[in-house]
C-alpha cells in the first residue's frame, strides 16, 4: 500500500509524500482498489440513536405536520437536516470551553476569538452576533434602504428575508449552468461577470450598497466559487465604488474545493486560500454554527469606520461588544474551530463523504446535484418524483417520504422554502432539492450506506409518493414552522409497502 500526500498527486510520479504538513490531507489508497473515504479522526464521545419502526415514523410525520423541522429527535435515526450547530466538536474545542472568561465586558475569551479571526480571515476588527442571520440583520439594517439592490451569486433564505424586510431586493447573477442539476462545472457558485456589469448599469452603482458572494453557495447544492471569479468581482466592485461582502459560513469547504479544482492553488495551504478569499472582501460575515463547528456568528473587516458604524446595532440587538449574545464557552470553541478550518483533514471529511454518496446514487440512476458540493448531498426532487408538480412541493414530499422510509431527516430546499408574490401565488423555486446534510465528522460510512440503500428502495417505489399542501402557513420563513398535510393517503400506502418489503426489519 502506497501513501501519497495530496501535494504529490500520482500524475507527478512521486513515490514519497512531498510534505510534512500535518494539516494537508494525505492520499490513502486501498489495496483492494476500492475508493472510499477514510476517517482521519476517532470517536471519543457518542450519542445513542433510535431507529423507530415505520409505523411510528408515519405517525411522527403526521404529528410533525409533514414538515421535517417539526420532528422530535427521539423519532429521528440519522439527523441530516443541517450541518448548522451539529458538527462534531474536537477535543481541543471542548477543552478550550473550560477556560472561558465569563466577564460581561473585556472578556479574554473574546480577545482570543479576535486573534483567531485575524489569523484565519486576516481581519482586524470583529463584531460578535449570536448567529449568521443576526449578522445579516445588522448588515441589512445598516446598508439596505428602500430601493437598494443587492447583486449576489445566490440568496440564502435568511439573507433574502433581512434584505426585503429593510425594503431592498436581490438580483441573482449566476452562470447559466449553475442551476442545471447535472453539470461538470467545478465552480457553479461563480458570479457571471458580464451579467454583473449589466446589472450595475441597469440599477446604478449608487443603489447598490454591496455585492454579496456566498461561499459554497448553499441553496444551489453547496457549490463553490473560484478565486479567479472573486478577483473579477472584486475588480468590478472597486471600479464602481461598491463594497464586496463575503458570506463565509461555508468558507472552509469552498477553500477545500479551490485547492482541489483551481490549478493556481493546488499546492497552496487551506490557510493561504482562506486568507486570499477574505482579503478580496471588504466585509466578511459568518455563521459560526457552520464555519467553526460551534455556535455564534460575527462580522469582520479591516475598515474600522464601517465596523464602528455598526457597533450600535450590536449593543442594541445582540449584547455587549465582547460577547454579542454568544456564550463565552462557545466563543472559546469558535476560536479553536476557526483555526481548525485551516486543517485540510478536518475540512475534507464532509466533502469526501458527500462525494462518495453522490457517486453511489449516480450509479443507481438516482438524480443528484453534480458536481458533489459541500454541506450535503442534494437529491433532485423534480427528477425523482416528476409526477408531482411544483405547486404540490415535490422536494417537501420527498423529504417526508424519505423520513418514512428510513428514519433519516433531510430538509426541503425548494418552493416550500420560497415565498409568495404580492398576489399570494407561490414563487416557484429554481430547483426542488432534498438536502441530506453531512455534518462534519458525525456519521460513519455504514450509516451513509444505509442512506444509499433506503434511497434506492424509495426510488423503486417513487410512484407511491404524492404531494403535500400547507394547512398552517407563517408569513415569514414559512418552512420552519409551517404545517402541511398529504394530498391523499399516499403516506399510509408507502409505509404499508415498506412493511411488506422489509418484513420485521426496521
Ligand atoms: N448564510 C448561509 C450561507 C447559511 O447557510 C446560513 C444558515 C446562514 C447564513 C444563517 O446562519 O443559521 O447561523 O443564522 N444555514 C443553515 C442551514 C440554517 O441549515 O443551511 P444562522
- The CATH topology of the largest domain turns out to be Aspartate Aminotransferase, domain 2
Main CATH class of the largest domain: Alpha Beta
CATH hierarchy: architecture of the largest domain? 3-Layer(aba) Sandwich
Query: Which small-molecule ligands are present, each listed once?
Result: ligand F0G
On the 0 to 100 scale, the average pLDDT is: 95
Task: Describe the SSE topology.
Elements: E1 3-5, E2 26-28, H1 54-63, H2 91-97, H3 108-121, E3 125-129, H4 132-143, E4 149-152, H5 157-165, E5 169-172, H6 193-203, E6 210-214, H7 227-240, E7 243-247, H8 251-261, H9 270-279, E8 283-287, H10 288-291, E9 297-301, H11 304-317, H12 328-340, H13 344-347, H14 349-363, E10 376-380, H15 381-384, H16 394-406, E11 411-413, E12 433-437, H17 445-460, E13 468-472, H18 478-481, E14 483-486, H19 490-502
Parallel strand pairs: 4-5, 6-7, 7-8
Antiparallel strand pairs: 1-2, 3-9, 8-9, 10-12, 11-12, 13-14
Helix pairs in contact: 1-16, 2-12, 3-12, 4-5, 4-11, 6-7, 8-9, 14-17, 16-17, 16-19
Bound molecules: ligand F0G.
